[in-house]
Amino acid sequence: MSEELHQRARRLIEKERVEGISAADQDWAASHISECATCAAFARKTDAAVRGLRGMAIPFPKDLASRTQFRVQLRAQELREREPGRRWMWAACAMSWALGLASAPYVWEIFQWIGEKTGAPKLVLQLGFGLWWTIPALLVAAVVMMESTRRDQESSWMRGQ
Amino acid sequence: MSASTLTLVAERAIYLSSVQDTEDRKAIARGLRERDPELLDFLIETYKFRLFRYLLYITANKERAEDFFQETWIRVLERGHQYDGKSKFEGWLFAIARHLVIDWQRQKKMQSLDSLMEPEQGAPLELVNESEPSPLSQVLSQEQETAMQSSLGQIAAIYREVLVLRFQEEMRIEEIAAVMSTPASTVKSRLYRGLEALRTALPEGIA
Q1: Angle value at C-alpha B141, between B135 and B147, nearest 5 degrees
Q2: Nearest CA to CA, how far is B8 from chain A (Å)?
Q3: Where in the sequence is the domain holding B38, given as residue range(s)?
Q4: pTM (2 decimals)?
Q5: Total tally of structural domains belonging to chain B
Q6: What separation in angstroms does the CA of B91 have from each of A27, B51, B56, B169?
Q7: Which residue ranges in chain A fall short of pLDDT 70?
Q8: Looking at residue A58, what is its pLDDT?
Q9: Buried b (16+ CB within 10 A) or exposed e, B76-105
């Protein structure tokens, strides 16, 4: 028997276990295995490997599930307690943004009035107006970043291993 | 009953089962969005063996697997709203666990699980060895089980991972690819290499 036939049989033996093969290929492989002791041994060893993997029993550590359930419940409670605060923060942000938008023309008029009184260049006025808009957004970004840093620190127990 | 009727009945059964699955997945997604404590307890209880086994295979260390087990469920609680119920829950769960392990590996100056390609670079597989007799030991001899554990310990973590997902979790190749965020072709090639490595590592007497 040629080496090519053996290689084909071995490819089919593995493929059958990994992804499955057609009925025709199954018949061909079975017929080859019945005539070839080496490929039959290959098939037996592949089956032993798969069977061994499927049969591997790993005992589950005692109390791990209950410890995990306890930790998850504690964290859930913590998140629930924090939820109203966060909702208020976002509501305040939304309100501030809406008021900022509505009052923009009046604010610009105030800036212009200050400019007329002080004689400040228009660029400075525009910069001031820009900051008037960006500072609240920057503050919110800082709060969100602080929140995320705090959350990272909470799970740093894992890195200490 | 004719063959065509049987086919129709089988197709109907498969359809009903998939509808059930979809309904279950939607219920899980809804419960996770609401952070339903009873659902979380139920999920931990349901998936505990499978998740722990997967973590043990990819971390090769019992204590670490226990830590990642807890952390995975905390993530499930925190990021539950991201599960849309369109895919299987276990795939999403394993993907979270996998990312946690990879993040930890990266923090230890490693790039990913791929850095455990060479068996000698990876930690040896420390499977749990507790006093309770495993169901397998009732079927196979203790010697064979030890041989299998030792053979698995000689295989790189990336191969152990696909082998456990395919042959223990019975996941389809596409599902494994989704868990690992890699193309199906990569999963297949790792499966073939893993199987070859395991076959080579198995002692002669095991067949």
Answers
A1: 100
A2: 22
A3: 14-201
A4: 0.69
A5: 1
A6: 34, 10, 17, 10
A7: 1, 150-161
A8: 81
A9: bbbebeebebeebbbbbbbebbbebbbebb
